[in-house]
Specification:
Layout (H helix, E strand, L loop, with lengths): L1 E11 L2 E10 L5 E12 H6 L7 E2 L2 E11 L3 H7 L1 E9 L2 E3 L3 H5 L8 E3 L2 E9 L2 E10 L4 E10 L3 E10 L11 E7 L4 E3 L10
Antiparallel strand pairs: 1-2, 2-3, 3-5, 4-7, 5-6, 6-9, 7-8, 9-10, 10-11, 11-12, 12-13, 13-14
């Protein structure tokens, strides 16, 4: 009742996956997987995964380690812990336009596409914790941030727009926060400091 798959390889939504799986099936089942994935076709994965509604991307690659225990799906999800990193080509937030948000206009009538993105993350207690997020907005600027997304797809992400050249005098420093559900995120801009009357 102990299964170990080492040096396993396979196909995963048009891409490749490789790694190992250790399953202890006596008593309460315990599972551990260490996986590398590459060239994953994200449109196919997103179409088959309702929890990713609100996102779009071209492809993804990365590594992830997963631990879970339990005999039911509910137990597995509740106990799930993970750690990994991911790199994506052409990530896009649907139903939100960051440029309009910074201009004070309604932000839910468009989308925001990035050249590429990367993240390091861990998960536990039904929540994904992004230690670092980097989204390239153009050749010269990117949004760096961190935050959480819970398993109900609620966002709490904080970003700052930075220049690829930190010595540039024109380096932007806009900061913002993404909240709400993944399918309909909201941009929260920092409040200007209150003026004190003399």
């Amino acid at each position: 009742r102990h299964i170990v798959l080492a040096n396993a390889t396979g196909q995963f939504y048009g891409g490749q996956v490789a790694g190992s799986l250790d399953a202890e099936l006596s008593g309460t089942p315990v599972y551990r997987a260490d996986l590398d994935f590459s060239r994953v076709d994200m449109p196919s994965l997103i179409a088959a995964t309702p929890s990713l509604a609100g996102l779009r991307a071209e492809s993804a690659a990365g590594e992830i380690s997963i631990d879970a225990r339990g005999a039911s799906r509910a137990d597995l999800v509740a106990s799930l812990t993970c750690q990994g990193n991911v790199r994506a080509t052409g990530p896009e937030f649907l139903n939100i336009d960051l440029r309009k948000s910074f201009g004070g206009q309604p932000d839910n009538m468009g989308s925001t596409r990035f050249r590429n993105g990367s993240a390091t993350f861990s998960c536990a207690q039904r929540k994904i914790d992004f230690q670092s997020l980097s989204l390239a907005t153009s050749v010269d600027t990117f949004a760096s941030g961190s935050g959480t997304v819970d398993f109900n797809r609620n966002l709490d992400l904080r970003f700052r727009i930075r220049s690829a050249n930190p010595d540039s005098e024109d380096a932007p420093s806009d900061s913002f926060r993404l909240t709400g559900p993944l399918a309909a995120p909201k941009v929260v801009l920092p409040q200007p400091p209150l003026r004190r009357s003399r």
